[in-house]
User: What shape does this take?
Amino acid sequence: MVAASEPDGNDINDWLILYHAPGVGAITFLRLIGQFGNAREILRASNAHLQASGLSPEAVAYLRQPDRKQIDCDLAWLDQPGNQLITCRDPVYPPLLLQIPDSPPLLYVHGNVDILSSLQLSIVGSRNPTVSGRRIASEFAGCLALAGLTITSGLALGIDTASHTGALEVDKATIAVMGTGLDRVYPAGNCDLAHRIAEHGALVSEFPVGTPPRPENFPRRNRIISGLSLGTLVVEAATRSGSLISARCAAEQGREVFAIPGSIHNPLSRGCHALIRQGAKLVETAQDILDELGALAAATTMTARSSDAVNLEQSTDLADDYTQLLDSMGYSHTSVDMLVETSGLTPAVVSSMLLQLELKGFIASCPGGLYNRLK
Assistant: This one.
């Protein structure tokens, strides 16, 4: 639970009054905070000053007589274990999200608030993916999570679910950005998954307690998914998929956009192909993403691994498998397919282990998708 008073003297109650005012969206809220300095000074301003600042008479009237029922619901939620409400002035507010022009003034968080500032990759896609698309999303999420990136998605059915699950299956945290208030889970079928995410990562929303899953909420949610992340990976999307909204948001926010190509006969490949034609990076392996993110992703990996990621010297469970893979490689240029064949490990395990070994300095990637052992 957060304290009732912010470091700059703002009471969270003041933020909630302004946040619930009719017609005060993210951009207006942030403009007012910039103009007046904090929420308390906005509430103290005269009606004439507030209207001169662009507030409607309805909004000004609400500030004078706010709906206490709405605000008290938020405060009651905040009193429950694991719940936090952070403002855009809070030191733990995610810095990447703060860079977008319409960053949410308030974030409702259930779980580990610190993980919001970790470097993230969002994975989105169809709600009705193929079996192959679901598997690809899960494998990419697992590999990239092992490499130190936090996987962020929207808890929807399909690719979102597979992405969250892929990170959890390798014992890594994941973030779900919700299109409802955090007092409910949508879709209801992902209730158990939401609990697992909260235990290992965080559930996040900009929507107040009691907000139902309205259609207009999800495009707004998508800008947060992309805004939290270094880049967005799209796995299977039709030409009118909501995932393309996330990709457009990422591009507009100056973030990387990645897309996985597919069969020309698969309708769920058309959205990804359209993104690639528009300049998205074509992705075939998790390493393609890390290569594109460059030094920033590598720095993320080293930082994450120092705290809780896989450590080759300390992990007894994986040490034998890493040794087996290195022995299979020898000191000649070797392909992933050859390593899968000679080691007896699955392609997903080999791919994630190669990322770890390369970042640790045991191997180096070579042209043509080959690897060479260094020590």
About this structure: Confidence is low (pLDDT under 50) at residues 1-9, 298-318. The longest helix spans residues 131-146. Residues 1-74 form one domain.
